[in-house]
Design a protein that fits this description.
The structure is a single chain. With 253 residues, the chain is α+β, with helices and mostly antiparallel strands. The chain is built from 7 helices and 7 strands. Strands 1, 2, 3, 4, 5, 6 and 7 form a 7-stranded antiparallel β-sheet that branches.
Length: 253
Amino acid sequence: MRFRLVLVLAAVAALTACSQAPPPAAKTDDEKTLYALGVLLSQNIKTFDFSEKELEQVKAGLADGAQGKEKMDLDAIEGYVPKLQQLQTTRTAAALKREKEAGTAYLAKAAGETGAQKLPSGLIYKPVKEGTGASPGANDTVKVNYEGRFIDGKVFDSSIKRNEPATFPLNGVIQCWSEGVQHMKVGGKAQLVCPPELAYGDEGHPPQMRGGATLVFDVELLDIEKPAAAPAAAGPPGAPPPPAPPKPAKPAK
C-alpha cells in the first residue's frame, strides 16, 4: 500500500505539472486550494526530471486509475517499483552532475569579476558597499537583510521581499554565511557565491534546495546584536542554571 500511495501522489503531481491545455488561473479559494495541493505534491517527483512525453504517460496512468480503467493489474504495477527506484537514482545522479558542472563554471566566472575575492575555502566574496562599523566574530549574532538565489537567477529566499530583516547566530548557519559575513562591517553590503560544499552539499535540502547547488547571496549587514543580559538567579547558590534557549533556525533554506 505504501508504494501504491507513492505512485498515486507522483501521478497527481504530474497531472498538475504538465497539461496540454492549461486550466484558467485559480480564482476561488477552492481552486487555489486544489492548485496548492498540486504544487505541493509535485515536489515528490522533481528528482525524476521527467520529460514532457514521460509526464504524459504518468498522467495517463492517473486518469485510468481514477476511473478504474487500469490497463495493468495492481500487482503487476507494484512490480515496477524497483524500476522506478532505479530510474530515480539514475536521474538524480545525472541532475547532480549537471548542477555541479554548471556551478563550477559559474564560480570561475564570479571569481574573475572586478573586486571579487576567492577565499581559501572556495567562497567567492565580492564587496558591494564597504561598511564603517565593526565586523562580527564567529560566535556573534547578526541582523541582516539578504536575498538568496540559484545561479539561474531564481530567488529561493529573501528577507528583502518579506520586508523583515533576519537575526541569527553565525555559528548556526551554513559555512558560507558564517565565513562570508565575518568579512563584512556593519553598514556594508556584499555578494557571497557559495560552492555546494559550503552550503547544502550534494544532498541539498529537498524539495527547495537542489543537491550540488551553487548559491548566490546578496547580504547587507545591519547590526551586530548585543548579548542578552544574564538572567537573575533563579534559586539558592549552587542551584542548576535555567535551560538554554532553543537554537535559532538556519536562514535561507
